[in-house]
Protein 1
Amino acid sequence: MQGDAFLAQRLERWQRELFELIRIPSISTDPAHARDVGAAADWLAERMRTAGLTAVVEPTAGHPLVVGRSPSLEGAPTLLVYGHYDVQPAGPIEAWHSPPFEPRIRDGRLYARGAADDKTQILLQIAAAEAAIATGGLPLNLILLFEGEEEVGSPSLVPFLQERRHQLAAHYALIADSMMFAPGRPSLIFAMRGIAYFEIELRTSAYDLHSGQYGGAVPNAANVLAGLLATLHGPGGRIAIDGFYDDVADVAAGQREEWRRLGFDEAAWRTGAGDAALSGETGFTTPERVWIRPALDVNGLLSGYTGPGKKTVLPCTALAKLSFRLVPDQDPERVASLLEAHVRRVTPPGVDVTLRNLQGNRPWRENPEGPFFRAAGSALESAFGVAPVRVAHGGTMPIAPALHNTLGAPVLTMGFALPGANMHGPDEWFPIDHFERGARTMLRLYHALAETS
Amino acid sequence: MQGDAFLAQRLERWQRELFELIRIPSISTDPAHARDVGAAADWLAERMRTAGLTAVVEPTAGHPLVVGRSPSLEGAPTLLVYGHYDVQPAGPIEAWHSPPFEPRIRDGRLYARGAADDKTQILLQIAAAEAAIATGGLPLNLILLFEGEEEVGSPSLVPFLQERRHQLAAHYALIADSMMFAPGRPSLIFAMRGIAYFEIELRTSAYDLHSGQYGGAVPNAANVLAGLLATLHGPGGRIAIDGFYDDVADVAAGQREEWRRLGFDEAAWRTGAGDAALSGETGFTTPERVWIRPALDVNGLLSGYTGPGKKTVLPCTALAKLSFRLVPDQDPERVASLLEAHVRRVTPPGVDVTLRNLQGNRPWRENPEGPFFRAAGSALESAFGVAPVRVAHGGTMPIAPALHNTLGAPVLTMGFALPGANMHGPDEWFPIDHFERGARTMLRLYHALAETS
């Protein structure tokens, strides 16, 4: 492929530029870094222009979006690529082996905050576009949509998408913010779970009581909360809320069979999970439990006295944070109603309960047999020398269903980081040779999509 | 009775002296008030000497004990009276209607920190002794044992009792640190619950995990803790630990019948409990649930994220503080073993559990039909004009079983504060006329005990 040689010749320059981008500490959650976030947006727009794209920095109520576009090609399909240029805070500096905003390469890994999530992955998108433009031109219309608020929940992105849906109209939408299933196993992600996040607060009396004076004769908010939470799970690791599984769609037996042949590395996965045991819903494998089955987790508990030693108190309030991971076709609003009904039913008399709905995002699932996935599959196979695996992701990206629903385009999530990349932790890393492989994949995908249409 | 007139003539002087004692902020938990605690001990020893007793301030590793003794009376029985001169911190000053260490009388109530707990109640013991000594002499041997560490868990008292058990040998032991069942209802307390206090900590992985990446496929410490705590209670408000009720002794049907005729004021009790609902073990009344039945309360819960908003975390640890109130013949050590066995049984595989035993104190129960109680009953009836009620107390005083076991003497708890006295809260109060009534009760008790022997 023509662009490959162009890419290969310019790798050193790209690496220098990647280091420049990484050195801008574009931490979106920290107001002290707001200027850095803006500087990263400007840097990207400028780099897009050098590549031969037009680029606009779009202001929002928060951090700006950067939108790059290739020269219009009448009659060709349009591919929109989403990514983000903001990063997580570095966390405790002493946990890093090299400074988080000073990129270092050790043993083929680029270590830095943003190395995997998501700066290298968006820069390789610009590199691929530049290589295509410089060597015969892009065979399709390309839109690069990079936001600066992914790490703070993307508050401006979905409204922007809605408002500009005609300008952003695309035939395919790629999310370039993920990882491969394993080293040497390039991956097509076709589903992500949704989320429904709640806070439950119980009150049993106006103030805390003495456990000697009252213990055994009045409800205790902490006891009641533990009992309530325990009713949410039933035998076999199932969620015991009436109607909860009504909307859970099956996944094709063929897909599950394919997954069983994946060679999922249980030991490595457990190591990544801090040596946790494996547990969950009976009848499903670990990947299935995370990818295609819903989950209910208590995220926080607080009641009574929690300092050192003892206090003989009957707590009058107790708080739990809890969240569901949802799968197609579950709806966070319906789950909220089912939970509310359950909580009302199991709360004993004399206990006030407040249920707060803190977040709701729908799950996303695409048909992995469609032309977009076929084109991406052949592009990956050509760039990596091995057929990709089709997998899902247990987390939630509101952008996935938003792209699908707003643009009406099939969505694919494809990325080149590797498991254990420490995306939000210290020593975040990215396999440096995946910059070139990722860009080569994109060059092939452009052509495969152009031929598909 | 001779002493009555003596008491009545000197009430103004006693009140002045009581105010002096209350103005000493003898807050035992606050190192900044250590001198005040010592000053209160010296004040009491001096006042005992004025009353005609010998008095020694006994140093301990913490705050001193004050031991007063009447002139030895060969062949007469010995009554030991226990009380304490230390107080709780005042708490938020703005919650008080008058300064906590500036005693004020309003509507017949003395308001101050220590008014009910326990300064007025120990001073009336000295007043009664003085009145007896001044009007013909005490008919028995009296030992006053006042500690300065009751509000910090009495760390020095039981060792002191053990070490000096021969010097403190007594035929009767009175705990002068309690309240009456209701206004106009003088009370003999014959039982208190014990306590067994634990901390449970669960660990499911080396660090917190992301709920998207792992939710549904690994144990979650908060989920597991809620489930574990829920197994501790069964139907009918019973504690569902194998063998837990084996050692729970019945209370005579006659006693329970007597209690049903007490006219327990449920509405007032609920008001005191911050409008809590009534709940608990089926088949028992509210007073019975608190007085003669064990209880298990979660005192604290902590796990995961508990700040504002949401965090999609799978907590790797979860902590609960929980405590049992025990009744005769339950043993805190045996309860610890039963709980440990239960926790091991219900903890799922792959979850590390640590059970810490933070406190264990035995319950106490005396035979309320014995001569000590008969003597005290007739003394109360004579001083208050109404027969006393025999009741129990749901809290725990380690001194009660310690007096019983170390001295081998029957123990009675009798006090003159009233319900709602705010012993550890703002606006603590004591019915001021109960100073004289309480001292009159003691004068009668001296004689009744002298005649009993």
Note: The CA atoms of residues 155 and 189 of chain A lie 24 Å apart.
Protein 2
Amino acid sequence: MTSFTPLIDSLPSTVPFVGPETILRRSGIPLRARIGANESVFGPSPKAIAAMQEAALESWKYGDPEVHDLRAAIARHHGIGIENVTVGEGIDGLFGLAVRLFVEPGVTVANSFGAYPTYNFHVAGFGGNLVTTPYVNDHEDPSSLLDLAKRENARLIYFANPDNPMGTCWKAGVVQDLIDNIPAGALLMLDEAYHDFAEGSVPALDMANPNVLRFRTFSKAYGMAGVRVGYALGHPRLISAFDKIRNHFGVNRMGQAGAIAALADQAYLKSVQQRVARAREKIYAIAQFNGFGCVPSSTNFVAVDCGRDGVYARKILEGLATHGIFVRMPGVAPLNRCIRISVGNDENLAALEEALPLVVKAAG
Amino acid sequence: MTSFTPLIDSLPSTVPFVGPETILRRSGIPLRARIGANESVFGPSPKAIAAMQEAALESWKYGDPEVHDLRAAIARHHGIGIENVTVGEGIDGLFGLAVRLFVEPGVTVANSFGAYPTYNFHVAGFGGNLVTTPYVNDHEDPSSLLDLAKRENARLIYFANPDNPMGTCWKAGVVQDLIDNIPAGALLMLDEAYHDFAEGSVPALDMANPNVLRFRTFSKAYGMAGVRVGYALGHPRLISAFDKIRNHFGVNRMGQAGAIAALADQAYLKSVQQRVARAREKIYAIAQFNGFGCVPSSTNFVAVDCGRDGVYARKILEGLATHGIFVRMPGVAPLNRCIRISVGNDENLAALEEALPLVVKAAG
């Protein structure tokens, strides 16, 4: 039999990515609330939907491999150059490419313990050596992350602002300090997937800085998770490197058209932001009513603090699943005292409100 | 500045993938015939379009990361198990992953000189050592490919049947012989993107053979190039390895729904096959009228033999471009005496018929 590379052989065969469809197939319990993956139940702009439906008629054509029009629209939106923008198959796809640019066996990557697992999946996938520092007060901790990166001679630093899975956020000034203190030879991958929910969290886009790559997505506030469009912003030296390895025809045609339309409809984005803020308050209230705390959120989800350990939080999560309510939870202590509830529509949250007291009671 | 890996530094910065949109942007000449990328102008099944338009309404949801329902439909269609199927972002995306499973610097890959360049792009991208053997009579040559693989101790062998860019094809028995003679330790990547156009070219699907991976796509006969859905078939040992590295949420929701609907509409596929066969005859006739030969095609494109060298063929290609006719051509001699014309609709071929005599005359 043909040998895989030693790196491939070393990777775990377990699949960490369990979707709600899989849970449904296993349990047979119909979903009443799909509020576990930080998707936006409010959906994309109707104009984006219309653009995708129209593009479906032309879907026999490959999408533009340069993704020119969408990149130009993104560049205009941010007041930067098209050479500062690359588009990929969601942020996850871009993380795979970005990690591949810098990581080979022996290269160290610094991250927060418990931060976005898909990033770490890619670091492992290219043989990187992951080192971590704990969250502090449910925040990723910029100063200890910098210390760690310096001490361990990390080539990459991952930092999400706002954070996932805890939903916490630093002000722009703190992130700017982090940027200003990146150790020599290191690059910061700044994941801003949720920045649309967190006013004041975004430091200026400095495209002359060759040591920062910033990642954005249409999956969250723009409500297009199933469409698969994310982008990275940075110095042309960084952005052009993606062209050496990316799947040039990989961004689907409907996604390119839909993202252009979504970006043009900022009024819709604003309405989503308002609806998310209201739904967050409702989740806070439901949690409080059940004796749970909440980590104040700057995202479209809330880390609900179940007040004990990970075993108990998992009991709550599994209890909710029996009521057709799909939520997720952080993977490691102490974050895993929480369950992570994405904002839902009124129906979803009514289902949560109804089920949670029963689940808490049953959990004892 | 942060160091890329030495492998990334070694890769060329030039982008080999120039789409018709780029050509249009550069030339300003409106496209009259987009017949260069072997897309299907006949489009997807109307049922697939409807399914994608419907799925756009739910595009706030990530696609199923297991792509369960589409994999199950593919498995049923082929009479194999779901564990024999993985789905990715087009064949190109799957080639990237498949190559990554086996190739690291020092690993040798055997291919035909002038075969599908995107595959070689991925081999280079993971540091593989590409060795090639020439086409014989415009066919990829199984026996010299086997000799080469054996001599060079290749870990991977790429073989496309039917072939791209020449459109030639071997009967199933010849391919079965190739499979039966794969050297110990090697794996055959059998690209069957165009098999729907070539009856009698497909050897039986033997999913117990751990040394063959077969690649199929919805981009060609199913007319969904812009949707980005391809799949690989093989032994579970091979298929499950993709899960270690693939972008689990990468296959967009509309694509999953559209591909299921497309697969279910075999009557539409049949009608496309008939229209492609008719259009091919028309291209043969146009070529002949202009004094050009044709390589008999088993695909949805025709390699038109311009009868001289690559410089002359490029002159013809560039001449056609000035008339808004987008075609491509093979990259290396002696294949590049040809231009590659994809099947078009009546309008497209009328434009070709009108322009080609002028272009030939101007080329001298």
Note: Chain B has two domains: 17-43+267-363, 46-264.
